[in-house]
Amino acid sequence: MHASLALPVLLSFFMGIAAVCCGRRWVSSLAVLTATATCVLYAQFVPQVLDGHVITSPFWQITALDIVGGLRLDGLGALFAVLISAIGALVFLYAGRYLHGDTRRHRLLVVLLFFMGSMLGAVTADDVIILFIFWELTSLASFFLIGYDHEIPEARHAALQSLLITAGGGLALLAGFILIADAAGTTSLSGILGARAAVLSHPQSMTAMGLIILGCFTKSAQFPFHFWLPNAMAAPTPVSAYLHSATMVKLGVYLLARLSPLYSGTAAWHGTLVLFGALTAFTGILLAFRHTDLKRILAYTTVSALGLLTLLLGAGTELAIIAALAFLMVHALYKASLFLLAGIIDHATGVRDIRQLRGLGRAMPLTAVFTALAALSMAGVPPLLGFVAKELVYESLLAGPHHALATIILTFVVNAGTVALAILLSVRIFAGPRQPTPVLPHDPPWAMLTGPAVLATIGLIAGVALSAVTEPWIRTAATAVLGYPTVHALSMWHGLTPVLGLSAVTIALGILLYCAWTPVHRRLVATTAIDRLAPERAYDAILAGMLSLAHGVTMFVQGGSLRTYLRTLFAVATAALLVTLLGREAFLWPGISVDPLDLRYLAFVGIIVGALAAARARTAFVAVIAAGLTGFGAALVFLFFGAPDVSFTQFSVETLLVVILASTLAQVPIPTADIRSRSQKRCDAVIGIAFGAAITLTLLSLLAVPLDLRLTAWFGENSLLAARGRNVVNVILVDFRALDTLGETTVLAIAAFAVHSLLRRARRVRALPAHSNRK
Amino acid sequence: MKPSLILRTTSTPILLLAALYSLYILLRGHNAPGGGFIGGLIAGVGILFYAIGRGRDDALRLLRLPPIAFCAIGVSCALVSGLFGLLPGTDYLTHQWSEIDLLGFAFPLGTTLLFDLGVYLTVLGTVSTIFLNLVRR
């Protein structure tokens, strides 16, 4: 059982790596198999979880870092994990066919596999730090997937926007996590939920809550961060279906649900979630009516659905939580299938504009049937699961303590709008006489149709076989969210209640709205106030402001003259040293005796001669060689005075330095003669002498302080015993402080990468002038 | 600017010497002055002389992989060497040792060597990346 919960996550990552290697031929089959395997791996836990058991695994506990949570699968996690892996398998199947002929498609599938692994890790993590890492990994995957068509500027812009917003929110989330983990005394999620009193009585508890809500809102595209989600539609359609409707954007909702037991009863929590949820739901529907692009309409309805979910979690009653979970499930099913179907329509006709798509039903009968099925669930028509979810939403809002009239009216309007859009996406596209399209439409191959067909059908089955299929899932998930077992039974037929009436009126109003779609759409497009008030403008302004500020600061700090940099650096260092030594009277005179006949001091003569020669040199060439002489002198000093390792390194570095500098000087067309003016030279001389004096004084003072040999003794004793090495320097580097060395090695490699790309680019840019300057 | 005949002729033996010596320095590093960093630098000096004597393209051909790849391989080696520490349940980067019987001598071999090899390759890669990008063919 140790790693059993980690297995699906690890499998996704490893298969992602394997897919990189196996090339594009088999990658889509591999991806489908992997997702299916993860789904099966989770399915084996499902009976236990639905029985009310919680499965835990200590994997990813890093006790040395106090990360103690590990992995945990309860009802909520299982609902998400199964949805993610099952929809993943269908989306991969679809994507392999959708991108057929695209030579880069394996890249997309590899990132999708990584995404699936991160997502599964996030929903099964029982530790806030692990959760945060996976959370940010999903943002990163989303960035790469949105920017898949990187040659298109809009795609790059959208990718950057989503990354800045979601990863920025992720940082807020991390801060919030650290605060609550600090308050609870553990990073384990279940531990934090258990230490409710401690977390809530912490002085910073409201700040922590605000930060966490911020993180969830950015991820789940809540107002005013909603705009990144429709822009993310620049990604290929399978990605939109998977990340930006069914899974990733629900991660924020997941976390809100996960933390509900912690904050339920806190007025600010309920208030914030209800307010912003309602605002988001309404904004989403309003903006959906402004657009004619299939994917954008779907994206805005997703925003609206996410808002509704947040609103329900904010309401926080038992019924509201159940409604939220049912709605979450049904939304994942119908929205993923609608997105996939939109991709099919786009593929088959070459058009995504709703105004040019009419009467496709005869040409694409199967597509029409499944679109209708998904749209019926979206509209909430019995006997589909969507109906049950909508009934629950109304019921909970009417019964709950937060049954402010405004919330109910707003939900009603949002639902009616959703109904209208569901009709728009199905009836309008498929019924009636056909309009000519650039490509002659036809039903897609089975690989593309399977996904939407299965998902839409599950929406139907889950509605019909309510108590057998759906109820256990919702009940166990609700138990996890509420923190206590719930016994509420789902039902399709409640009798003639006000809720049923509201549902009927919703559908009627939806049909009316659909009939009035053209004028409403025109009117909304003409309303420019919406554009002027859009939060996206604030985002653009802030980003532009930051860039110009950074530009200004960079221009001020880095004027581009290396001499100025060096002068500044040395002047500041000298001033700091001298102020400390002389101003604070820290200077001490060491009591050392010098034997003037020691031949080893000749090395110092080398250093001095080199330094003087470098200062007097007329060309850069001579200066480099003279500077090399000082370096070799220093290496000799190290060798003579008992630091062979350092001396070794110094010799090699000096050799490299002289050779690299000399050969660069021989090739780069820069003036090698000294072009400084007299006063500049004088200034440099003053700075140089002052710096040398400051360093000398510092070293003398250091010698005056008695040497603390405790560490030397410890390493000397333990180096051979604990690390089996006699060379203490090397043992410290590779064993005792190996993590530091690893970091330094990585820095070195990163520097090499930077040099590599910089110089390669410089060579390409300067290819012509360089050629003419060749000797 | 053509390199002198002396430089051309001696560049290969210098490279061989540097390579051998750098490996020796790498291997003995745990018990005597040396180690991956110095070894990598020495090997880098060898490549550098070779590139000066025989030209950049010959040096690139000799390396077979692009120089930057050595950095990637090196960092990977160092990263992987730490994983062995997880096997017996200790922390990452806890180095493991075993005795290998070599011609009757018990020869201690540790994951530190893989770690140091990583450092060696990264340093070598960095030096050659910088130099081979700077010189023109």
List the helices and strands and how they pair.
The complex is a heterodimer of chains A (775) and B (137).
Chain A: H1 6-22, H2 27-43, H3 46-50, E1 55-57, E2 71-73, H4 75-98, H5 105-124, H6 128-146, H7 153-184, H8 189-194, H9 196-201, H10 205-219, H11 228-231, H12 237-246, H13 250-258, H14 260-263, H15 267-288, H16 294-315, H17 318-349, H18 365-379, H19 385-399, H20 405-430, H21 446-464, H22 466-482, H23 498-515, H24 517-526, H25 529-532, H26 535-557, H27 562-583, H28 602-616, H29 620-640, H30 644-667, H31 678-704, H32 710-723, H33 728-736, H34 738-765, H35 767-772
Helix pairs in contact in A: 1-2, 1-5, 2-4, 2-5, 4-5, 4-12, 4-17, 4-21, 4-22, 5-6, 6-7, 7-10, 10-13, 12-17, 13-16, 15-16, 15-20, 16-17, 16-20, 17-18, 17-19, 17-21, 17-22, 18-20, 18-21, 19-20, 19-21, 19-23, 20-23, 27-31, 28-29, 29-30, 32-33, 33-34
Chain B: H1 5-28, H2 36-54, H3 56-63, H4 67-83, E1 97-102, E2 105-110, H5 111-134
Antiparallel strand pairs in B: 1-2
Q: Key terms for this structure?
A:
A: two-stranded antiparallel sheet; 35 helices; 74% helix; 1% strand; elongated; disordered C terminus; B: 137 residues; two-stranded antiparallel sheet; 2 strands
